[in-house]
Design brief:
mainly alpha, Ferritin-like, Ferritin, DUF2383 domain-containing protein
């Protein structure tokens, strides 16, 4: 039995979302000064790493390939984050960057969940977990904006 293309597409997009979240956390964590904000972001990074492990298991199970975010995507994220932080190196700016990333990530995943509606339930479940993690993080960051 072959795997439905929707499964592989949603798996790839969810994996890319986790990778971009981890990339952003790693980029900003050392610049955050507030201990509580640092704890929130660190906990979310750990949650994303756990989801990344789930995704790696799914990727192996489906025989899919791993794909890194494009160099252009990473460069744009790096430039945006560093430009904003260089203009205002504050926790509020870091929280804003992460919140915008969460918003963009959840919108994108909702779109792909709808687009790839024939994806296997295990992949859809992991995508839902990432959406929930991003929405939760966004709420936790509201006091820092």
């Amino acid at each position: 039995m072959t795997t439905h293309p929707d499964t592989l597409n949603l798996l790839r997009e969810t994996d890319l979302g986790v990778q971009m979240g981890l990339y952003t956390f790693d980029q900003l964590l050392d610049r955050i000064k507030d201990d509580r904000l640092k704890q929130i972001v660190t906990a979310s990074r750990n949650d994303h790493r756990r989801l990344q492990g789930e995704l790696r298991d799914l990727i192996k199970g489906y025989g899919s390939y791993e794909e890194d975010p494009s160099l252009m995507t990473k460069a744009m994220a790096w430039m945006t984050g560093n430009m904003k932080m260089s203009m205002d190196d504050s926790d509020q700016t870091a929280a804003d960057i992460i919140t915008r990333g969460c918003d963009m990530g959840t919108k994108t995943l909702y779109k792909y969940m709808n687009q790839y509606d024939h994806a296997d339930l295990s992949v859809r479940d992991t995508a839902r977990k990432l959406i929930a993690a991003e929405e939760d993080l966004e709420k936790q960051l509201h006091p820092f904006l």
